[in-house]
Write a structure and sequence with these properties.
CATH architecture: 3-Layer(aba) Sandwich
Helix content: 25-40%
Oligomer: single chain
Strand order of the largest sheet: 5-4-3-6-7-8
Length: about 270
């Protein structure tokens, strides 16, 4: 079984008149591919944790959270269902606080580094104080963090992996011969790139990393939300410096064809 998936990247040469976006079609082996749901949280979700007005958390404003929930239900959930239908590995990347709710789904963690091997600590508390000014005084003590979990439509199912660290994910992927990762989740300009087990780290280890464009969004500002300025900029950054992008619709169509047209739904454009 193979899944046909058009992907694109940005070709920046010749530099004076670059070729620009280049599309190529891959034939994915589901046994060598994993769908990665990264930081799909239950903040701003029906039945989850209300997005607070007094703090700037997760995807930012309450308006951003409305769009985030739409992406979870209309893009991420169908992509998860499609991957499960064709037997593709599904991996959930979450901070330890959430991952510990699903201990039975975690592969072994690599040994901790030797004491004293982490280098010097921060020279001041300036980073903490600056974050408080941006996100709201006391946001790190917000009571909602205690109830943080995966958003209900994106919660792991038995047999799927729950990952915390880059090393943990790398070891698990290598043990199964997986070399291609399809990413979705939040946020495109932050955790999708730079959190543990995210795109930049795995691309640096040689994995082919693809972002599903409609299944993610960046933290947008009130004056950038309508045009999704930061989302589009982050997607172009990934296409030029990190990996590739593909559409959810093409992924679903490829899974549907591979499964003989049965049991695979459609995302909403």
């Amino acid at each position: 079984m193979e899944i046909g998936l058009p992907v694109r990247y940005y070709r920046a040469v010749p530099s004076g008149r670059p070729q620009g976006l280049v599309e190529e079609k891959w034939a994915l082996d589901p046994a060598k591919t994993a769908l990665v749901a990264l930081h799909c949280w239950n903040i701003g979700c029906p039945g989850g944790i209300p997005a607070p007005e007094q703090f700037w958390v997760f995807v930012g404003s309450q308006q951003n959270h409305v769009l985030m929930w739409q992406i979870v239900t209309e893009q991420i959930a169908p992509a998860l269902a499609a991957a499960r239908q064709v037997g593709m590995a599904v991996v959930h990347v979450q901070p330890e606080q959430i991952a510990n709710r699903y201990r039975e789904l975690q592969p072994p963690l690599p040994p901790a580094p030797a004491p004293g091997g982490g280098g010097p600590g921060p020279i001041s508390d300036h980073a903490v104080r600056r974050a408080q000014r941006v996100h709201g005084e006391g946001y790190s003590e917000w009571e909602g963090w205690e109830r943080l979990d995966a958003a209900e439509p994106a919660r792991p199912q038995p047999g799927e992996m729950m990952i915390v660290t880059t090393e943990q994910l790398d070891a698990w992927l290598r043990s199964r011969g997986i070399d291609t990762l399809l990413y979705m989740g939040f946020c495109t300009n932050l955790c999708i790139l730079d959190s543990p087990a995210a795109m930049r780290a795995l691309a640096g280890l040689g994995y082919r990393c693809v972002i599903l464009r409609e299944a993610t969004m960046a933290v947008e500002f009130p004056d950038t939300l309508e045009a999704m300025v930061h989302t589009q900029a982050a997607l172009r950054y990934i296409e030029a410096w990190v990996g590739y992008s593909a559409s959810v619709g093409d992924f679903l169509a490829g899974c549907r064809a591979a499964a003989g047209g049965e049991g695979v739904g459609e995302g909403r454009g």
